[in-house]
Amino acid sequence: MKKNPSIKTIFSSPIHFLAFGFGSGLSPFAPGTAGTLAVIPIYLLLQTLDLIPYVLITCIICLIGVYLCGASSQKLGVHDHSGIVWDEFAGYLITMIAAPKGWIWVGLGFILFRIFDIWKPWPINIIDKKIRGGLGIMLDDIVAGVFSLSVLQLMYISFY
Q1: Is residue 10 in a domain?
Q2: Could you please report the per-residue DSSP string of 60-114?
Q3: In the predicted model, what is the mean pLDDT of the chain?
Q4: Considering the domain boundaries, does residue 3 fall inside one?
Q5: Tens of pLDDT along 55-79?
Q6: 144 in a domain, yes or no?
Q7: Which of 18, 73, 124, 127 is positioned for an S-S bond with 120, CB 3.0–4.6 A?
Q8: Rounded to whole angstroms, how far apart are CA atoms 72 and 13?
Q9: Confidence class of residue 160 from pLDDT cuts 50, 70 and 90?
Q10: pLDDT tens digits, 87-114
Q11: Among 103, 107, 80, CA closest to 92
C-alpha cells in the first residue's frame, strides 16, 4: 500500500483507525503531536481511577498497541508510519502515571513526553533503530514515557 493512506483507508479499517489514534495520526503537520493531544481527553477520564486500575489499563493499551501498530504497519507496508500514533497514546499515559491533578501537570507531561519522543536520547534511539515490528514501534515510546514520568515526578517532588 502507498505510504500516505487515504482517510477512507484509515476509517474503514478498525486496526488502522485505532493505530492512527482515531484519525489524529492523519494530521498533515506533526502527527505524533496530534496523537499526543488526542489522548489527553482519554487521560482526563482515566485520571479519576485509583493507581492500580490506571496502570493496568495503561499496560493493556501498551500490549494491544504492539499488535495494532505491527498489523497497521504491515498492512501499509511501511515500518512505523508517522501516522501510527497509538504508541504516543501509550507513552503519554505512562508519563501521567500518578501525576498530580491540574492542567499544569497535563501540559508539563505533554511537553516532557514530546521532548523525549522527538529527541530520542539513549537508549530510546537504539530501540527506535534496532527493534522492528509492533514491539519496536511501541517500545521507544514506552521508554520515552518512563523517562517523562521520572522527570515529571522529580519536578513535583522538587516543587512541592
Answers
A1: no
A2: HHHHHHHHHHHHHHHHHT-TT-TT--HHHHHHHHHHTTTPPSSHHHHHHHHHHHH
A3: 95
A4: no
A5: 999 999 999 999 999 999 999 999 8
A6: yes
A7: 124
A8: 9
A9: confident
A10: 999 999 999 999 999 999 999 999 999 9
A11: 107
Task: Identify the band that residue 3 occupies on the pLDDT scale cut at 50, 70 and 90.
Answer: low
Measuring CA to CA, how many Å separate 157 from each of 79, 93, 113, 154? 39, 20, 18, 5
Residue 1 has pLDDT above 50, yes or no: no
Query: Domain total for the chain?
Result: 1
Q: Is the dihedral of CA 57, 107, 89, 153 positive or negative?
A: negative
Q: In sequence order, which residues have a C-beta less than 8 Å from that of residue 39 and are 6 or more positions away?
A: 21, 88, 89, 92, 93
Residues whose CB falls within 8 Å of the CB of residue 37, separated by 6 or more in sequence, listed in order: 24, 110
Which residues form the domain of 97?
15-159
Let me know if residue 141 belongs to a domain: yes
